[in-house]
Design a protein that fits this description.
single chain, mainly alpha, 7 helices, 72% helix, 0% strand
């Protein structure tokens, strides 16, 4: 895990409000930092599995990051949103759930131009 992602995880643990975290995710997607958001989401998902902290604030933020990536126009954001939907972060899952894939597909269809969706991986 990069130092930047580790620092973001530490800041996430220390923060008390979700509004600032969600605004930062939206700004990162708008700046084209989809890879950083994907890596942060992956690190957060592993962090949930590896610790005794409550899942709720993390799972809500993970959902928000996938929504932000899917709805912020751009081929890179669409690609990272699709990868996030297909990723299996939790140790208890061997494959992404059909519900998660359908949700991501709907968000991508609503937020991305058709040209950004055609090169995405098949499910």
């Amino acid at each position: 895990m990069s130092d930047e992602i580790g620092g973001l995880l530490a800041a996430f643990d220390a923060a008390t409000g979700m509004t600032d975290r969600m605004a930062a995710a939206e700004q990162a997607a708008a700046r084209g930092q989809g890879l950083m958001l994907y890596e942060l989401a992956s690190a957060l998902a592993r962090h949930i599995d590896d610790s005794a902290i409550p899942r709720h604030p993390y799972s809500g933020f993970l959902e928000h990051m996938s929504r932000v990536l899917a709805l912020t126009p751009g081929a890179a954001n669409a690609d990272w949103a699709a990868r996030l939907a297909l990723a299996t972060h939790h140790q208890s899952q061997s494959a992404p759930t059909p519900r998660r894939i359908r949700r991501a597909a709907g968000l991508l269809a609503a937020g991305q131009p058709a040209g950004c969706l055609t090169p995405l991986p098949d499910v």
